[in-house]
Amino acid sequence: MTRSATALTCTLTLSIILNAPLALAKTPVATGSGGAVATISEKASQSALAILNKGGNAIDAAVAAAATLGVTDPFSCGIGGGGFMVIYLAKDKRVITIDHRETAPASFTPAVFLEGGKEIDFEKAVASGASVGVPGTVRGWHEALERYGSMKFKQVLAPAIDVATKGFTVSDTFSHLTRENEGKFRQFGTTSALYLRDGKAVTAGTTLRNPDMAKAYREIAARGQRAFYEGPMARAIVDAVNRPPVANGAQVRAGRMTLADLANYEARIRQPVLSTYRGYELYGMPLPSSGGITVAEALNILEGYDLKSLPRANAEHLYLEASRLAFADRNAYLADPEYVDAPVSGLLSKEFAAQRRAQIDLKRASANVSAGDPYAFQDDQSIPLRPQTRPLQRESAHTTHFTVSDKEGNVVSYTFTIESWGGSGIVVPGYGFLLNNEMTDFDFSGPRPNVPEAGKRPRSSMAPTIALKDGKPAFTIGSPGGATIITTVLQTIVNYVDFGMPMDAAVNAPRLSERNGAATSVEPGFGGSAQAQALSAFGHKWEDPAEEIGAANAIVFNPDGTVTAVSEGRRHGVGSALVQKSAH
Ligand code: GLU
Predict the structure, then answer these.
(1) Taking the chain, what is the end-to-end CA distance rounded to the nearest angstrom?
(2) SS3 label, residue 473
(3) CA of 148 to the centre of ligand 1 (A)
(4) Whose CA is nearest to atom 5 of ligand 1?
(5) pTM (2 decimals)?
(6) What is the pLDDT of residues 428-482, one digit of tens each?
(7) Cα(445) to centroid(ligand 1), Å
């Protein structure tokens, strides 16, 4: 079957599975030359394109898109949170990453989420000052622009300031997410004033302006990152964390953040995780994100099978089993590398993958597998960490991912977040942005590795990825979705590389997320499908689908020199894929 025929089949299958009108299942795809961008928001893609058209590079355009997403997608991301950016620098032919994950305030201890020795209620922890980490986004943007950009904050924030000032039209997805979070938002006066009308979610079609966020961006445009980390905005953040602006007598936990926590925040420039898969070089995010390592381990396991020659169900069974094994290792070993000596080289070794592969039964699904022992495959075996066999922690599934390239060949793959939908629920008074609840990404109780500690960054799953082939960019991929980010990136790579699907079909395909739990997470409508039945025959079990999984964005660099941007056709509303010069 040709690639385009595969695309049609998958689109049809998906629309039948999800009972949606076919037109809605059409993935936004744009092919052409010059720069390209794929985001989940039309306004954000337009901001990136405007900066590219003004001569900005991919890094400039990425910050412009991110700032606009902070306005149009404020429940997923923004300057109140943090993220991970992977950048391919065309001139140097190298990939670097910027870790601007939130850090725990200096007041944090491993007992911060315990009361009387017991873990506190997750939702109560989320909607509180105690869940807020020191935001890293502005520092990350600063590092990106200073080191690799060609423009200043003033230029790249201009499109977002315009959207925040003039407003944007509230979509069904936006209104739905607000409705889902009414309870959380109602507890905070600033948040209710911005996103609720008489205590109810803003409705689709409303024009929403955010002059306070425009003000915050203008201050950063004028004074740079210092405007955020020192002075009145920093004070407003610290006050909001320590004395949350509650409404209606709501009782929420306060945090303990100081001006020094903000002033001391640093982003980290880190070497990417490099792995290989069937002739591709994959560059992913290193710790404190578990994303790059876990995707790489699962692909190393899968590399030992000729997936494309197998019946689809057999290959998908192997995909689920490889993911399960990689997750067991992720949960046991991975955390902030400045606090924990994780056995990264062992986990990434092809020999370790071969040992893990030997555990897979080609015919039967396994359940709750134990972590492997990567130490035998590690250069430095001096500090062994006992594997932790703790049950899967609760992790939410939100965030945004997008990707940009420019005509020089620079590429950005960027995932950033405020953690849950609407983060902690606290909008900073006078500045219009939501504070994250990233600290709930720590395990609430020990033992190590991912326990809360002062200054530590909680383990993430974000997996922005850039793939090279023959030394040149081949594709980018990434997704939101908490721990399902890892499986969405993994599955999309398998769909594209092994099953030969075009990227739009690879992105569109129903998602299956196996994370070594009791059952595999699937999307609404999957349960009764032929695909589900074929996999059930191996013993796979499905979790009741709560929601769609992820909202991926990708760029493919075609052999003929053109570029194809791909976004989502139906998840999280509809995405937006644009190129500078369209091929049509
Ligand atoms: N906090 C999550 C992480 O870092 C991302 C948020 C989400 O996608 O839900 O992995």
Answers:
(1) 25
(2) strand
(3) 26
(4) 482
(5) 0.94
(6) 999 999 999 999 999 998 777 899 999 999 999 999 999 999 999 999 999 999 9
(7) 19
